Amino acid sequence: MSADVAGADGGDLFAANLKGALLALASSAFIGVSFIVKKKGLRRAGAAGSRAGVGGYGYLLEPLWWVGMVTMLVGEIANFIAYMFAPAVLVTPLGALSIIVSAVLAHFILNEKLHRVGVLGCGLCILGSTMIILHAPQERTPSSVEQIWNLATQPSFLCYAAIAVAVSLFLMLYCSPRYGQTNIIVYVGICSVIGSLTVMSIKAVGIAIKLTIEGINQAGYFQTWIFAVISAICIVIQLVYLNKALDTFNTAVVSPIYYAMFTTLTILASAIMFKDWSGQSASNIASEICGFLTVLAGTIVLHSTREPDQTVTADLYTPLPPKICWHIQGNGDIGKQKEDDSLTCEFITVVRQDYFV
């Protein structure tokens, strides 16, 4: 009798994992499309005013950007529901499939060329995702939000959360103003570190909603609302810095680095908080890790073959440094003006034919 109960329970857990996997796949499709639409919107907004990468918010008035946001919202809702049924170790790595969607669409819409070797990258992503689905752990849903709160307040996870917040503040307050425009790790790092906390809090809110729908009301627990507030704050931060990353750097560079960092940190956070790998055999854990590494290799191969973005990294009328050397050609002779301390930062680049070095 106990064997029958265990078999039925295992079947229910497998069905839950399957629902989560299908929702994650649908989420990847919508999010992949949203990357392209938002990128188009950011380009239009940047052509009309200050770009998001240099602190501009003109994209908020661009309808195409909002279309991308709505598409992304649909994908995130599907992803949110997926976390109700399946562990983060399964759902998060499947986000790599959104990279395949964005790579293919970018080839046709953004003229970011995808070469034949990129098809190999797509195949590796699909192969790795299949391995992850087949060997994903079967997670038991907590019976109350209080149980999730107890998991979140473990010393090990509190230590991880404190480190994540400290690193994010350092990147936002110190590194972003200084290196954000030249080092992609700054913006993407903020998105990834904060994103790992976002997934944990969203999973908690999703489970609370699922239990409430099943008749076990979780709205009366203050922990539910704390998780909801944390989720909202983290999502806003992610969106701001993801827009900066997309507007400043090529999609071909942003996507694989963001995927690798975000997925790694999310799996780590989930393993610490929810003990995803507890009770799994070593072979299953090894298979999941190999699947993730295969997907990671696929993203690297996929994007290493795409051409770099040709967009300008600064506004046309940008103040120049106080000291410059410039060359002007006239009547066949080239004259050189050495460093001039009298020039101020208000000196504007108007004549594009001059050569400044």
Describe, in plain words, how this protein is organized in 3D.
This protein is mainly alpha-helical and 357 residues long. The chain folds into 2 domains: 112 residues; 192 residues, no CATH class. Helices cover 68% and strands 3% of the residues. It is built from 11 helices and 3 strands, in the order H-H-H-H-H-H-H-H-H-H-H-E-E-E. It has a 3-stranded antiparallel sheet, with no helix packed on it. Helix 2 packs across helix 8. The termini are far apart. The C terminus is likely disordered. Belongs to the NIPA (TC 2.A.7) family. GO terms for molecular function: magnesium ion transmembrane transporter activity. Acts as a Mg(2+) transporter. Can also transport other divalent cations such as Fe(2+), Sr(2+), Ba(2+), Mn(2+) and Co(2+) but to a much less extent than Mg(2+). It is found in: Cell membrane; Early endosome; Membrane.
Q: Give helix and strand order, one letter per element, not per position.
A: HHHHHHHHHHHEEE
Radius of gyration: 24 Å
Q: Tally the structural domains.
A: 2
Poorly predicted segments: 311-330, 332-357
Give average pLDDT, whole number.
79
Structural class: mainly alpha
Taking the alpha carbons of the first and last residues, their distance comes to 81 Å
Task: List key phrases describing it.
single chain, 357 residues, mainly alpha, 2 domains, 11 helices, 3 strands, disordered C terminus
